[in-house]
């Protein structure tokens, strides 16, 4: 077997001293200081785990009509309160189930979702009453990872010897930096929006479509579920059970929700 001789034109040599591409994390790893690289890795794994949690978990699907459910204390409370307030739950036109207040049918998931926020194509799942707090936690951890990755990517670039060869050699790192920067801005906006919504006990759907939602449009107060920022955030992050929103709704009499 005869091997073709290597030609000089096929190989481009970059002196290591002129084009250092070691980031701060790589340098610390090589020097045996593993604390920050391991912490960064743990954060990445945490954000990946949260991604799969919000993507795979039940966002709060309405599985049965309220009347057909087993008697659970919260549901009983909700039903008795319904009778008191004379609220009539609307029946979904797609799955034909009675929708609890703040639920909405998602065409992509083919389910009604309790305290519907939005259907997220990034996680390919709805964001609803069950997974909304995990979704916000995912955004927060992801933002920390991105904010840490920005200076790490920047530290791998060397601007002392700018040239076309330098640009080719650092192209991948430059693109990575730009992608991380764009995602960071998006993540800041998303996290800010969802923290605002959570602190006011409202959802993206309710915020964007108030004029189409009867229980908000016909209500005398701006937001019937708002209990103040602290209580709203406590309820959002620290309440594991599903909430019968009908019980918190001011008495309006005879409305279809
Ligand atoms: Zn439905
Ligand atoms: Zn959905």
Automatic annotation (TrEMBL):
Membrane disposition: Multi-pass membrane protein
Single GO cellular component term: Golgi apparatus
Pfam families: DHHC
Residue ranges constituting the Palmitoyltransferase DHHC domain according to the UniProt record: 90-209
Primary site of residence: membrane
EC class: transferase
Keyword annotations from UniProtKB, A to Z: Acyltransferase, Lipoprotein, Membrane, Palmitate, Transferase, Transmembrane, Transmembrane helix
Catalysis: reaction(s): L-cysteinyl-[protein] + hexadecanoyl-CoA = S-hexadecanoyl-L-cysteinyl-[protein] + CoA
InterPro entries: Palmitoyltrfase_DHHC, PFA4/ZDH16/20/ERF2-like
Residues spanning the membrane: 34-54, 134-154, 174-198
Location in the cell: Endomembrane system
Any GO MF annotation of the entry: protein-cysteine S-palmitoyltransferase activity
Family of the protein in this entry: Belongs to the DHHC palmitoyltransferase family.
Domain notes: The DHHC domain is required for palmitoyltransferase activity.
Name under which the protein is recorded: Palmitoyltransferase
Gene it is expressed from: ZDHHC12
């Amino acid at each position: 077997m005869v091997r073709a001789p290597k030609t000089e034109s096929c190989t481009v040599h970059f002196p290591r001293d002129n084009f250092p591409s070691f980031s701060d994390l790589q340098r610390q790893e090589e020097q045996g200081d593993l604390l920050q690289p391991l912490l960064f890795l743990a954060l990445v794994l945490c954000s990946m785990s949260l991604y799969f949690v919000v993507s795979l978990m039940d966002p709060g699907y309405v599985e049965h009509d309220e009347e057909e459910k087993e008697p659970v204390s919260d549901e009983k409370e909700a039903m008795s309160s319904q009778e008191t307030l004379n609220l009539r739950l609307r029946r979904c036109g797609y799955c034909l189930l009675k929708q609890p207040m703040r639920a909405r049918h998602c065409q992509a998931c083919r389910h009604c979702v309790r305290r519907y926020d939005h259907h997220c194509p990034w996680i390919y799942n709805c964001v609803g009453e069950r997974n909304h707090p995990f979704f916000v936690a995912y955004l927060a951890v992801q933002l920390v990872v991105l904010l840490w990755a920005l200076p790490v990517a920047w530290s791998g670039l060397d601007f002392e010897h700018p040239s076309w060869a330098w640009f080719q050699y650092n192209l991948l790192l430059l693109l990575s930096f730009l992608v991380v920067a764009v995602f960071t801005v998006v993540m800041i906006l998303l996290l800010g929006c969802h923290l605002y919504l959570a602190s006011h006990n409202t959802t993206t759907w309710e915020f964007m479509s108030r004029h189409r939602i009867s229980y908000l449009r016909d209500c005398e107060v701006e937001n019937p579920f708002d209990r103040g920022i602290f209580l709203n955030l406590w309820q959002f992050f620290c309440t594991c059970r599903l909430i019968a929103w009908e019980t918190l709704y001011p008495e309006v009499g005879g409305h279809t929700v």
